[in-house]
């Protein structure tokens, strides 16, 4: 019914008019054994969640709100690679479908014109040294107008509609996102992280910039110099020391 271009991703697809959070639904399905490639999508979320416990506004028909279940056979430390992978795949779909040039802010915010158009929330369930499943929630602002954002995020948020000046059909774009996610996931399994890392660096708006990284209640400022083989962000501080971050929130300093 959805006209998928994928071979396994989204072949098990749960569609809702409204749920609290597609990540929550996906985690419950995964806990009950849902297979890799299961997708949960909703027209609206009443309790959409962002990173760091924030709220993610998800009004009906204004965006693409969905979650994916993956069961990669990797160590928990490698799971953050999937976070970067999702950003690469979504950025590719947005670029292909709109012609706009998306930029990725570490680890996986997708920006257009310096404003956030898409956020990704990765949740991992690990048992000892093995990943049991990873749920990735992706929220793309498609036809949201300025009024759809709360005043506090309005200056930093955008949508495809606001960037293009016209409404965008969501279904073909959703199909393209799933297609790119499947393609990049298979590539990651076959070739490892390096191709993802290269594509991430190409789309990055973080590397080479002055950044402030907020991690573990500490703020580090410096120049973002690289993404390492595990997906960690490396920042050179004014003192010349290079620090490595596997999680945190990046603020780009104005250029
Ligand atoms: C962020 O940038 O803070 C992450 C935002 C993630 C939003 C998506 S929308 C679909 C999925 N369900 C949720 O509750 N959150 C994610």
TrEMBL record:
Occurrences of domain BPL/LPL catalytic (ranges): 1-189
Cellular component GO terms, alphabetical: cytoplasm
Positions of biotin binding: 21-23, 45, 49-51, 116
GO BP field: protein lipoylation; regulation of DNA-templated transcription
EC number: 6.3.4.15
This protein's name: Bifunctional ligase/repressor BirA
Keywords: ATP-binding, Biotin, DNA-binding, Ligase, Nucleotide-binding, Repressor, Transcription, Transcription regulation
Catalytic activity line of the entry: biotin + L-lysyl-[protein] + ATP = N(6)-biotinyl-L-lysyl-[protein] + AMP + diphosphate + H(+)
Recorded family membership: Belongs to the biotin--protein ligase family.
Sample GO molecular function, one term: transferase activity
